[in-house]
Amino acid sequence: MPYHRYVVFLKWLTLSLLAYAAVLFTVHVPWGEVALRTVWPKFAFDWTAAAVVVGVFGTTISPYLFFWQASEEVEDMRREGAAALVGRPSVDAAPELRRIKWDTWSGVFYSDISACFIILATAVTLHVAGITDINTAAEAATALRPLAGQFAFLLFTLGILGVGLIGVPVLAGSAAYAAAEAMGWKEGLERRATDARGFYAVIAVSVLLGLVIQYSPISPMKALFWSAVINGVVAVPLMAMIILLVSKKSVMGAFTASRTLVVLGWIATAIMGAAAVRMMVPG
Q: What is the CA radius of gyration of the chain?
């Protein structure tokens, strides 16, 4: 199935994340304290807390997402036969850039709101119950018990399947794009497997490795957490490099980033870098 057809299902699957928002309407939530601690959190900023902060950044500003979005924008342009961003910038590029801007901002907003729902729902269910060390999906499913009772496990399983179907093309696909570009292979989810063997081989190997980890002694929850931490650390130099590139007219021409975006980018990079450094200092 070509990506332009599959992506329609991916967008609808993101609604599975709203299950955690529904939990908040079935349990007691101290909204006043939530509002206060959202803008003024209270915790000891030791290395473990710093690791959690880096992990949250790593799931939000993940390096693979940069490559994924850029690659899919190129695929869309190829499929539609458009060359708006390299044609007449003052005429052709404006509508495309508005679409990309809206798509990016709306996606970031929805993902951040969903993450907030997940963190809050887990805090008022699992954490309140004293469950602070999750090793299996079955344990995490108890967060949905206030919503659906014994059906919580089924709902969580459906949610995992939905998120998995979203994550597989993004995680495995971004790795395949990076490998294919480095090796000079044909690439693209719009191509058939026979036309891009190396590209799809990387996707297949990535999925198989994921299955191997699932049946290994490695805790999948801990693997997810530490992979997010690694992403948070790797994102810092990558963000710095991207900001330097997008702010140079010699590189971007008429498409240089605005001063506001550059300043916000440097602030985010500095905060992520500080958290990463604190994480590496014991105590």
A: 21
Residue 210 tokens read as 């994921």
Check residue 43 and report its DSSP letter. -
Q: Distances in Å between the alpha carbon of 136 and those of 98, 157, 185, 187, 221? A: 42, 12, 38, 35, 7
Give how far Cα 273 sits from Cα of 67, 194, 229, 268, Å.
21, 42, 12, 8
**Mean pLDDT, the chain, integer:** 81
Contact (Cβ atoms closer than 8 angstroms) between residue 61 and residue 243: no
In a domain, 175, yes or no: no
Would residue 252 count as lying in a domain?
yes
What range defines the domain where residue 133 resides? 3-157+219-279
Instruction: Please write the tens of the pLDDT for every residue from 24-73.
Output: 777 778 888 888 988 888 877 788 888 888 999 888 888 888 877 777 77
Task: Please write the tens of the pLDDT for every residue from 181-191.
Answer: 888 888 888 88
Distance between terminal CA atoms of the chain? 51
Residue 147, domain member (yes or no): yes
Q: Considering its fold, how many domains does the chain have in total? A: 1
Tokens 């708006």 found at: 84
Assigned domain for 189 exists: no
> Could you give the C-alpha distances from 134 to 13, 77, 219, 235, in angstroms and in order?
24, 43, 9, 26
Phi, psi of 250 (to 5 degrees): -65, -20
Burial of 196 (0-12, 13-18, 19+ CB in 10 A): buried
